Amino acid sequence: MSSWQTYLDSQSDRFLQELLDFLRIPSISSLSENAADVQKAAEWVARRMAAAGIEGVRILPTGGHPVVYGEWLHAPGKSTVLIYGHFDTQPVDPLHLWTHPPFEPIVKEGRVYARGASDDKGNMLIPILAVEAMLKTEGKLPVNVKFMFEGQEEIGSPQLPGFVAAQRDLLACDVVLSADGTQYSENEPALLLSLKGICGVQIDIKGAKGDLHSGVYGGTIQNPLHALAALIASMHSPDGKILVDGFYDAVVPLSEEDRAHIAAVPFDEEAYKRDLGVDEVFGEPGYTTRERAWVRPTLEVNGMWGGFQGEGTKTVLPNEAHAKITCRLVANQQPAQIIKLLEAHIAKHAPRGVRVTVTASNASSDPYSMPADHPANRAAYAVLEALYGRPPYYVRMGGSVPVCPMFLKHLGAYTVSLGFGLEDECVHAPDEFFRLSSFRRGQTAYAMMLEKLAE
Amino acid sequence: MSSWQTYLDSQSDRFLQELLDFLRIPSISSLSENAADVQKAAEWVARRMAAAGIEGVRILPTGGHPVVYGEWLHAPGKSTVLIYGHFDTQPVDPLHLWTHPPFEPIVKEGRVYARGASDDKGNMLIPILAVEAMLKTEGKLPVNVKFMFEGQEEIGSPQLPGFVAAQRDLLACDVVLSADGTQYSENEPALLLSLKGICGVQIDIKGAKGDLHSGVYGGTIQNPLHALAALIASMHSPDGKILVDGFYDAVVPLSEEDRAHIAAVPFDEEAYKRDLGVDEVFGEPGYTTRERAWVRPTLEVNGMWGGFQGEGTKTVLPNEAHAKITCRLVANQQPAQIIKLLEAHIAKHAPRGVRVTVTASNASSDPYSMPADHPANRAAYAVLEALYGRPPYYVRMGGSVPVCPMFLKHLGAYTVSLGFGLEDECVHAPDEFFRLSSFRRGQTAYAMMLEKLAE
Q1: Does the beta-carbon distance from B398 to A215 stay under 8 Å?
Q2: Which helix (H) or strand (E) covers residue A131, if one does?
Q3: Are the beta carbons of B230 and A226 separated by less than 8 Å?
Q4: Which is it for the CA torsion A233, A236, A242, A246, positive or negative?
Q5: What would the pLDDT profile of B423-440 be if each residue is shown by its tens digit?
Q6: Would you identify the CATH topology of the domain A3-195+367-453?
């Protein structure tokens, strides 16, 4: 057994107590009344990093919630790894659905229950502990390591792009390890190969000056709701293909290897339908459900409204109609380009007799994908295989994690997602928890990963 | 000058004071706290009718707000006329936009301002006064007359169909005169030839059990908002024709005479667009704007909604979508048949992967149309021409007045709309008023009309 593993085992009670300490700080980034708690969490992290032997620890301003930075750079000739995580949390409501107070962590049956336990305090503490174990037992790390922990992930990291761009020299690295991620199951590891990007628009349609009597004016002017329905309907074929001209043009086609990776991941379509409560899956022809979810771009209307929505009948010809749309993008689609295509589609298909305006939303992120054979990915593959006793699944996510394309853009570095939460851990929901077995396994994984990256 | 005209002229101050009295009763039928006021208005009407010499006056229960009935049936061999009107009013809000309190009537520059002045107290008092003048001066009426004034018109007359059906013997007549109507302008009379019917449905679309993350699930199952948009879009061609199979089948084609009548009514399309604030009129090809408004059936979405409608972005794949639709019908379309066609269309066009339900709304009324050459219409034509010094326009209404098809169905009698309000009188709005010139001209018109019907 390696000396750092002996250290990790011997300190596990203390580490758990420290995690509980960390979890007691209600660092909810979305609530202004908790801003001081987010700052307090940053200070806790900084102190803990320094105690681990990490150097140059400092709390850096961003214009919003701060970033905590630290480094250990005494491995000349070795690569430099940036470790990312976040110390802010989601709000706790609905509070009455929690079995225990969300910021009074309790340990029960090998799990620690608290807001932030899995997302992301438990996971982000892991690499600090692994580094401490290596420094305390071996006096050094096998590679150069930088740490960047942020306090605004749960509000969409509004100041992070500017911060990363401005601090590109400080943060310069060969690869990023993200401690904000998941594995496939307790016994099956996973390695994330791609995330979708996102962009969106709001469509606003105006007709007459005000709402009109549908008997007196119906049939004489365009109804904004009819116009909106026609416009939205023009965006998909009846079988679910997106009909916006050029929408798929930039998409990198799926390779046979990609399809094989996806097909290798267990998927029970009957269970999927049952869980969602739908009679059939539906979407772009020519792709499996998993492929559509993971690697095909989508266009979804998130909301649509206009006119009378109350009980009974109101015979109004409304003068406004609205829709919110977001697209999930895959490599190599660009948010700005997709917005242009949407605008062109809407201009081309806008029904007569109404005024249609399109406003791009702030939610924007590039898609992210990482070559399966990237050296850091191969390292993570080997570590996970050794730890779990079986090779990881190559998985993808339909969701968007803006920090990954951001690091690629500003630092030129890919991000390996090396987190140990599981999907059932009630992240963002009542009774969030983290498995202590994951907390311990993660520490070993990070130490192994740093060694592997030095090879 | 006829003796009744001399009487009308001599009593005009008293009649105005009586109208002000009547207008002081806040008989708002939609507010339960005003139910006693509606009853009080019924009692006022009954007393006023009896004072006019009308016989058999009684307040009849309907299960809701009452009906006031009276009669004068001493013209053997002459036709029987049923005079209709209503003594209930709309609510007054927004109260702060009224220049004077709505139930403290004031007279200013030849107008009386109060809620209900034009709709319909001023208009419904007119025939009572005309009958009084004839009875006081000539001791008799030229035809048999029945009166039916209701107290629930402004809430859609929910108990009236049952009441009219149950009282068909009491109400039996040859023709109805409705004192709830308008003329074209102060100097131009109008005769109403048709009203549209109405029917409606609500469409409810359900997808998954609950709202889903649009990144994780987008593209894998049908989005209810996409399904709704496709369904609504399927109901109209891009140029505004209704595409529901069979929708136009029962429609009686417009005759050349109908089109000539409509074309003869002044219509300034540029002013129409300017007033509505639209750049162009729009609708079923092959018909003028007036024809579409007055005599072509329509299908309008009154409201449509689902998903996130707040500020910013919420990347939800919603599990519900809804729309409310009403159709305006023309002769000989039947509401029940149109509902069936809508259900069939929706069943045929319902997108895959969601559950679509259709619920017919309670708002239902047959279309109504009256032959231009009906004897009572010819009589009204002659009276209006004599009074205004020019022939009336034949007009139609896109709105629905359920009482007209109801009288036709249960009593077999057509309704001549003989009211004297004008469109600018702020009916249902703040500062409603009625012109005293219309109040006096209407009294003369009703006396002339009864004489004409005796010829």
Answers
A1: yes
A2: helix A122-138
A3: no
A4: negative
A5: 899 998 999 999 999 999
A6: Aminopeptidase (3.40.630)
For an interface test with B, which of A212, A221, A308, A348 has the most B Cβ atoms less than 10 Å from its Cβ?
A221
Kindly determine whether residue B282 and residue A400, on different chains, have CB atoms separated by under 8 Å: no
Task: Using CB atoms, pick whichever of A238, A289, A308 lies closest to residue B230.
Answer: A238
**Non-local CB neighbours of B197 within 8 Å, separated by 6+ positions:** B328, B329, B330, B333, B335, B364, B365, B366, B367, B368, B400, B405
Q: Which residues of A touch B235 (CB under 8 A)?
A: 226
Q: What digits encode the pLDDT tens for the residues B50-78?
A: 999 999 999 999 999 999 999 999 999 99
From the list A281, A296, A304, the residue facing B306 with the nearest CB is A304
Q: Where does B3-195+368-453 sit in CATH, by number? A: 3.40.630.10
**Helix, coil or strand: residue A166:** helix
Question: What are the mean pLDDT values of chain A's consecutive 10-residue runs (455 residues total)?
Answer: 94 98 97 96 98 98 97 98 97 93 98 97 98 98 98 92 97 98 96 96 97 94 98 98 98 95 96 96 98 97 96 92 97 97 98 97 91 96 98 95 95 98 92 97 98 97
Which of A301, A303, A312 has the CB atom closest to B226's CB atom?
A301
Contact A303 B282 (CB under 8 A): no
Between CA B186 and CA B441 the distance in angstroms is: 10
CA A420/CA A399 separation, integer angstroms: 18
- Residue to test with chain B: of A214, A216, A428, most B Cβ within 10 A: A214
Look at residue B99 and give its three-state secondary structure: coil
Domain ranges of chain A: 3-195+367-453, 197-251+297-360
A28-86 residue pLDDT tens: 999 999 999 999 999 999 999 999 999 999 999 999 999 999 999 999 999 999 999 99
Angle at Cα A101 formed by Cα A97 and Cα A106, nearest 5°? 115
Domain spanning A197-251+297-360: which CATH class is it, in words?
A: alpha beta
> Which of A233, A323, A326 is opposite residue B230, by nearest beta carbon?
A233
Torsion of CA A274, A275, A276, A279, to 10 degrees: 0
Q: How confident is the model at residue B363 (pLDDT cuts 50, 70, 90)?
A: confident
